[in-house]
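Typical record is below.
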Amino acid sequence: MLLVTGKTYTYKLLGVIDMILVSTATPRGGEIDPVLSEQLTKVAAFCINYLKINRFNALLNIIVSKRKGYISGGVGGYCSADRQEFGHHGKMWNVDIEIANVGRGEMMSVLCHEMVHAKQYLRKELDIDGNRWKGKAFKVSSKDVYALNSPWEKEAYKLESKMFKALLKHPDFQWMKKYNTDFMEK
C-alpha cells in the first residue's frame, strides 16, 4: 500500500509496496499538484521494487520545492534518512527526498537518483555522518563539493540511468515520453 497525501493507493501493476509509506508535499507541508504527486508516487513505487527495498519499514517523504529551478544553485535533489521511534510500531526509517522544481522528466530522473541513496541508507551501505561506505571509512576530497567521486554517488548515477531507461520502456510509464528527456543523453 502507498499512502499519498491522505489517500491510499495500491499500485497493482508494479506490485504492492507493503512497508513503505510515500507522501508528497512542499517544503512547508503544503499540497503539490495532484498529477505530479501521483507521478512521483508511481515512480517511487517502481524504484522501490527495482531496488528491492520494499521489505523495510519506512516513511518516504518526497518534497518538491515551490520555487522553480534547482536547489542551492545547481543541485537537483537531496536525500537524508534516520531511524525514529514510532510508538507501538517500533523503529521506522524516515527518509526525506527533496526534489528541485525543474522539468517533469528531470524531476523523475532526480527521484530515481535519490531513491538509490534511500536504498543505501536503508541497507546501511552509506553513513554520511561517519563518511563510511559499506563499513569502510571514505574520505571525500575538499575539492569534490558534491562528493561526485565517492562510491555512493557513482552507484547512484549508474542506477539512476538504468532505472530511468527501464521506466521509459515500461508500459505503465509511457506518459513520461511526452516530457523532455534530453538531459539523459549526457
User: Anything to note?
Assistant: Helices lie at 34-50, 104-122, 151-169. The radius of gyration is 16 Å. Residues 1-17 have pLDDT under 50 and may be disordered.
